[in-house]
């Protein structure tokens, strides 16, 4: 019977369309995107890229949806903070709790962008560096 199979396919079609066509690719925008940054301590966890870093390294984590199954590892992001301060960070991990446009920054990178080391979320714009 073709009809039951077709009904089954139509039932799961919305799920299939919700998944990116190439989940291993890293989504890259042409322009800066707005997001927020929070601070994390890379010295206290092994990053998803398999490397351990110091808190004064300029490193970051991106939303798991942007991570692309380690395709983002080693890529650089330019981040501009609320006061106009900028920093370039290397992606070394993903962030499960981050929104799609949010980043986790090492204390050193966070301080350079936000101007101080303080807990919380702060608005930024950022862009993948070529």
Automatic annotation (TrEMBL):
Signal peptide location: 1-18
Name of the featured protein: RlpA-like protein double-psi beta-barrel domain-containing protein
Keywords recorded for this protein, A-Z: Signal
Keyword Lipid metabolism belongs to the record: no
Annotated source species: Hapsidospora chrysogenum (strain ATCC 11550 / CBS 779.69 / DSM 880 / IAM 14645 / JCM 23072 / IMI 49137)
């Amino acid at each position: 019977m073709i009809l039951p199979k077709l009904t089954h396919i139509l039932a799961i079609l919305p799920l299939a369309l919700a998944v990116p066509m190439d989940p291993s690719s890293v989504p890259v925008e042409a322009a800066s995107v707005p997001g927020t940054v929070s601070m994390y301590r890379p010295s206290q966890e092994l990053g998803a890229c398999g490397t351990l870093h110091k808190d004064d390294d300029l490193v970051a984590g991106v939303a798991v949806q942007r991570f692309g199954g380690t395709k983002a590892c080693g890529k650089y992001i330019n981040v501009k903070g609320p006061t106009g301060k900028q920093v370039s960070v290397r992606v070394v991990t993903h962030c499960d709790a981050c929104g799609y446009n949010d980043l986790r920054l090492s204390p050193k990178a966070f301080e350079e962008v936000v101007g101080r080391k303080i807990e919380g979320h702060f608005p930024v714009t950022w862009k993948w560096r070529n």
